[in-house]
Amino acid sequence: MEHKLKDIIGIFNRTFEQEYNTKLVKGGEEPLYVPANDRVPYHAIYFARGFYSSALHEIAHWLVAGKERRKLEEFGYWYEPDGRSAQRQREFEKVEVKPQAIEWILATAAGFRYFASSDNLDGNPGDTQPFKQAVYEQVKIYAEKGLPKRAEKLRQALADFYGTPNYIDLKQFDVTRI
């Protein structure tokens, strides 16, 4: 299955632009979320380097962010660049569990391969297995209790577009393959 950027951009924008004044935009080297301002009248999710996986990841962060956080650049979160210590890496992973669980669910709905991201290329991420297991456990919670409203809406749109099952099938999630 081919995954074109124009498809994910179109699916996202059709699903959310009208109601949330938010657009998915192909960005440059680094991803960025910028709320509407006096130069750009819409909220923009810029994903990095034209990567489909980056689009899914940045969308997942937007889907986790609440209404007040969506008013802030980068949702008001800190970001510590590559080269994090093991302790800082564990702290980073704690805030990544929900977005990456949603990203994995969206990727699966799109028939796209998901890889857990430690996002610490210049540092030693340490043992990533506990993080991957935590992401999987969160997927199981979402499968049982349901996704947040916006995430579910996008999951359904992706499943419809790509012709994948329109439900979260836990048999499609294997923590040893991420």
TrEMBL record:
Keywords in alphabetical order: Elongation factor, Protein biosynthesis
Molecular function terms from GO: translation elongation factor activity
Entry keyword Protein biosynthesis: yes
Pfam families associated with the record: EpmC
Name of the protein described by the UniProt record: Elongation factor P hydroxylase
Annotated organism of origin: Seminibacterium arietis
